[in-house]
Write a structure and sequence with these properties.
The chain has 169 residues and is an alpha+beta fold. The chain contains 5 helices and 8 strands. It has an 8-stranded mixed beta sheet with strand order 1-2-3-4-5-6-8-7, sandwiched between helices. The longest helix is centred in the middle third of the chain and has 16 residues. It is globular, with a radius of gyration of 15 Å.
Length: 169
């Protein structure tokens, strides 16, 4: 499926996106704040495309034919937390070179519309690390409301605090 916004196209990831993904995802300012390690090679990025980014309702955020980020809905058991039946978890990231343009919110808004209108999802959750004020602003712009604070463990097995937000249809 392809979803469109004013400025972006949301489409499935393709294997030929690996080099571009690596270019953006090797940046240590992007992955760790979103909960994943910086990519170490084009092969690493290709593996992510074939596994993580191949899950249903996971899309490349494309601007001018360049995949600049990712947005997706996660469903149990692929979520970071159990949110209950009929719920999904929103995740997104945008390449640092494209920060400040509202693309994370624009892409997420379109996916949320698809989730509520076409997928019969009743509630969407999202989390952000307490220090990630950019992600907090994105979720507030989308209408998410505070749900709870939680602890999570990252890929380095470090415990961190995150805030969970909730959006109901």
């Amino acid at each position: 499926m392809i979803l469109k916004t004013t400025n972006l196209i949301l489409r499935p990831w393709r294997e030929d996106d690996a080099e571009c993904l690596y270019h953006f995802a090797k940046n240590p300012n992007v992955g760790p704040i979103a909960g994943w390690p910086p990519h170490e090679s084009i092969e690493d990025s290709l593996n992510i495309i074939k596994t993580v980014f191949s899950k249903r309702e996971t899309y490349a955020i494309v601007k001018n034919d360049i995949p600049i980020g990712c947005v997706g809905l996660l469903f149990h058991p692929d979520t970071n937390h159990w949110w209950g039946d009929g719920a999904s978890e929103l995740g997104y990231w945008v390449a640092e070179e494209y920060w400040g343009n509202g693309y994370a919110a624009e892409a997420s808004e379109r996916l949320i519309e698809h989730a509520f209108d076409d997928l019969n999802i009743k509630v969407i959750y999202a989390t952000y690390r307490v220090e990630n004020s950019q992600s907090k602003r994105v979720l507030e712009k989308l209408g998410f409301e505070y749900y709870t604070e939680m602890q999570n463990e990252n890929y380095l097995h470090e415990i961190f605090k995150e805030v969970a937000m909730k959006l109901e249809k």
